[in-house]
Prior knowledge:
This protein has helices at residues 20-23, 39-42, 72-84, 111-121, and strands spanning 6-13, 87-94, 132-137. It is of the alpha/beta class. The protein has a domain at 6-23 and 65-137: 2-Layer Sandwich (Transcription Regulator spoIIAA). It is found in: Golgi apparatus membrane. It is a single-pass type II membrane protein.
Amino acid sequence: xxxxIFYDVHIFYYxxxxxxxxxxxxxxxxxxxVPHWDPKIAASHAQGRHTPPEDIASSFYPxxxxxxxxxxxxxxxxxxxxxxxxxxVLVLSWYPPGVxxxxxxxxxxxxxxxxxxxxxxxxxxxxxxxxxxxxxxF
Length: 138
């Protein structure tokens, strides 16, 4: 591909999503409803969890639906979109092995799959990535 790449454009990418097809359950899409900070107002708001696939824990509904981060086709699609957007940096959130945030599961095994999908986005696994990957440890 012959176009500019913008290294001041960063995309934050999270590996914590799961779907019943790949993970036997929704992961993170069914996040707990965040309560209002004012207890008086919070009392009148809904409580519980989001109920995918229609109601997901996101302000925007993904074009691919509530996907799994373990789905290689999803990873490849996302990396191709990042490449096409000419974003210069992919910031990959990552927890140490065996550790996950409160609503998820460990994802350290996905890091190699993301790297492979990112290389595939160039159309040739020998061609260097046009965007950089930064791994952000939590």
